[in-house]
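Usage

Read records sequentially. Each one opens with the input sequence:
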Amino acid sequence: MPTGPLLFLVGPTASGKSRLALSVAPTLNAEVLSMDSMSVYSGMDVGTAKPTAEDRRKLKHHLIDLVTPEKSFSVADYMRVAEEVLCGLADRGRRGLFVGGTALYMKALISGLFEGPTADRALRDALEFQRRRFLERLQVYVFGECHLAAELPFGVRCLVEP
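and closes with the structure output:
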């Protein structure tokens, strides 16, 4: 990560962060780095408050539309891409202004990530298989052996991300 202080503009949804960033960033010789966990996904423009095309023309924005929604994107992925962007900005004599409200991203940028193992794909697959099997049995228990049970969506929140 480049040296020097990181700049953050944080706050709740619809509090005017993006508008303020458009006026503040030029005075700081900065470009915007989105700090919104949903804005990294392309095609998810509704409900994410991504900057408009006009705002992106006025001021360069980064860390937006990085992956498609079916792809996994972790805080470690965010850190890797953010570091690449910050290094590129530093090479051009510019600064980065992180704008958004995803506290986990901010915490990771300030404190770093803990050292731990990467995700165990085999374990996740095994847990997902068990979850689906349990839910199928639960549906049969609740609704009996009927055609309707097979058509019902799983109603238990998924705790194991694919």
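Summary fields computed downstream for this record:
- The beta strands are 7-10, 30-34, 61-62, 95-100.
- The chain has two domains: 7-111, 121-151.
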